[in-house]
Write a structure and sequence with these properties.
Largest interface: A-B, 45 and 49 residues
Helix content of chain B: 55-70%
Order of helices and strands of chain B: HHHHHHHHHHH
Strand content of chain A: under 5%
CATH class of chain B: Mainly Alpha
Distance between the termini of chain A: 54 Å
Number of helices of chain A: 13
CATH topology of chain B: Ferritin
Structural class of chain A: mainly alpha
Distance between the termini of chain B: 36 Å
Radius of gyration of chain B: 18 Å
Strand content of chain B: under 5%
Largest sheet of chain B: none
Order of helices and strands of chain A: HHHHHHHHHHEEHHH
Helix content of chain A: over 70%
Oligomer: heterodimer
Radius of gyration of chain A: 22 Å
Structural class of chain B: mainly alpha
Number of helices of chain B: 11
Strand order of the largest sheet of chain A: 1-2
Number of strands of chain A: 2
Chain lengths: 321, 252
């Protein structure tokens, strides 16, 4: 009994340390004591983030072989490699919470873990590669810049690194759009069409309005989340509207207007039915993305088995030599 | 054949080899058995696209036509391509891709080691840069050949099948023609005999260590130098060149 009381006391003390650290604004490190809910929240968020980077390689990879110039191909190849690298980096960061990459991948395949809803939309034309870089990565950056100050150390450090590369991605996307808007009528139409299709899904990337967001409460208290969904969405809209104007693209929102008093743009209503429909599995590409990831994973089994068999064989040889 | 024509043909051949190989490797994006491998293979594709850019740009200058690297890559048709047939074959399974990478990167390693000594400054500079990259491609392919050859029964079987299927395409790498002879006289082109000897010795060693059998030399496929390709090249070009062909007025 005495022992139980003692461990309870230690437990309490450690949790008090956690809260004090959070309040002081110090980072939480893998070996620090943390509440289970904090750990679970991060596992969910970080694995989702890693999966998003990896699934996002599919719509973009879809255009590598058709990239219209050698330079465009190089930039796209480099960009997708960055995304894959971010995925690896985030998987490793998430592993510090006590979950393996294999477990995270099987959670993805079972549907328990999610990835960003935006990648359930198809990349139909070359302009979509521009729109993904400019709008999708542009929205992701706003979120990730905020996450650089998130309370979990490994996640925050990953974000600092990732943000540097993401800003290059956004410029790359914007450059494609700008070039097309300066180009032929066909190119301009292609660019505007991509804008029309990607604008609203990009706004949805920030998640439901603050009043509707189920995870916000604890995440804010623990300083995992430093800004609300609506604050981040607003930041994205304000910077993007001007960028669109510069190159002559129209934002597909007839209610969008500058609000002088508030010093920001007011936007039209977001179609949350579409958001929940796509999240619920009925987007244009949900099944395709997951089926592809599972197929590739299964086709690779023999390769991973061979690598493991070879490693074991070599280890044994080393022991006997 | 003039010196200019020979040099153009030589650059085109090297440029097309890089371009077509990069195309096939880039197809592994989001298709590789491990995320790490996805990154490695597309990174090699990136190296090769850069090499194609340098060599095709130079080809356009040598030719005097003023054609850019993109014009040469995206506006030439099947019969004008000069790459080796092996490089345009579909990726097959991971073993096939690794086997091809081993055979070709080893060839490129010895080839560019020699080309670095070329009297042509541009070719020598491209060779110096390529050599750094190719060393890594060769090491990577060697490591995987050992793992797959000496891994499980299945990986061994797949790796042996890949080497066997590719062997008849290896002769073409060492073919020489009038352009080679002309450029060799001026110390511009590489003497292929020692390249072939070094290549064979290295491949023999790796296959042996990987418990694989080196196939006997039989009939060797040929045609790339004359622009007579496999049926696969046309499909590569129709995909790769689609935007440039569909919107000839556009710049991207």
């Amino acid at each position: 009994m005495e022992l139980l009381e003692k461990t309870d006391k230690i437990h309490e003390e450690l949790l008090k340390n956690f809260e004090e650290k959070i309040n002081r604004g110090d980072a939480i490190e893998p070996k620090d004591k943390m509440p289970d809910a904090y750990r679970k929240h991060l596992m969910r968020q970080m694995s989702q983030h890693a999966h998003s980077e990896v699934i996002g390689m599919q719509p973009e990879g879809n255009w590598i072989t058709r990239a219209p110039s050698l330079r465009a191909k190089q930039i796209l190849l480099a960009k997708i490699q960055d995304e894959g690298g971010h995925g690896l980096y985030l998987y490793s960061a998430a592993e510090t919470l006590g979950i393996s990459r294999d477990e995270m991948i099987s959670q993805l395949h079972s549907g328990k873990a999610k990835y960003s809803n935006i990648f359930n939309y198809p990349a139909l034309t070359w302009a979509d590669i521009g729109a993904i870089g400019w709008l999708v990565d542009g929205a992701a950056i706003v979120n990730q810049v905020s996450l650089q100050r998130t309370s979990y150390g490994p996640y925050s450090r990953a974000m600092v690194r990732i943000c540097k590369e993401e800003s290059f991605h956004q410029r790359q996307g914007y450059e494609i759009m700008a070039k097309m808007m300066k180009g032929t009528k066909d190119q301009q139409e292609m660019a505007q069409d991509a804008m029309n299709r990607w604008w609203w899904p990009s706004l949805m990337m920030f998640g439901p309005h603050d009043s509707e967001s189920p995870h916000t409460g604890d995440a804010v208290k623990w300083k995992i989340k430093r800004h609300s969904n609506d604050e981040l969405r607003q930041k994205f809209i304000d910077k993007t509207v001007q960028q669109a104007e510069v190159i002559g693209l129209t934002i597909p929102d007839k209610d969008l207007k500058w609000n002088e008093a508030a010093g920001r743009y007011d936007h039209g209503a977001i179609d949350w039915n579409e958001f929940y429909r796509v999240i619920g599995g009925n987007g244009p590409c949900n099944k395709q993305r997951m089926a592809h990831h599972i197929k590739v994973h299964e086709e690779g089994v023999w390769v991973r088995e061979a690598a493991e068999a070879y490693r074991v064989k070599k280890e044994k040889q080393l022991l006997h030599s | 054949m003039t010196h200019q024509e020979a040099l153009y043909s030589y650059c085109l051949r090297l440029g097309d080899n890089a371009l077509i190989q990069s195309y096939r490797l880039s197809e592994w994006c989001s298709n590789a058995p491990l995320l790490e491998e996805d990154l490695a293979l597309t990174n090699f594709a990136l190296d090769m696209t850069g090499r194609a850019q340098a060599l095709l740009t130079y080809a356009g200058q040598v030719d005097g036509s003023g054609r850019t690297d993109d014009e040469l890559a995206y506006r030439r048709s099947e019969r004008k391509f000069r790459n080796n047939l092996m490089l345009e074959l579909p990726n097959g399974d991971f073993a096939f891709t690794i086997a091809r990478l081993l055979l070709n990167a080893t060839y490129e390693y010895y080839f560019f080691t020699e080309l670095r000594k070329s009297a042509d400054e541009t070719l020598s500079a491209v060779a110096a840069k390529t050599l750094k990259e190719v060393k890594y491609h060769m090491t990577h392919a060697t490591d995987w050949t050992l793992r797959l050859g000496d891994g499980t029964n299945e990986s061994h079987r797949r790796m042996q099948a890949a080497i066997d299927a590719l062997w008849m395409y290896t002769g073409e790498m060492f073919e020489t023609d009038e352009a080679d002879a002309l450029l060799q006289d001026k110390n511009v082109a590489v003497d292929m005999a020692p390249v072939q000897a070094s290549w064979k010795a290295y491949i023999e060693n790796v296959l042996k260590e990987a418990t694989l059998t080196m196939p006997a030399d039989g009939y060797m496929q040929t045609g790339g130098r004359k622009g007579v390709h496999t049926e696969h090249l046309g499909h590569i070009l129709s995909e790769m060149q689609y935007l440039q062909r569909a919107y000839p007025e556009a710049t991207w």
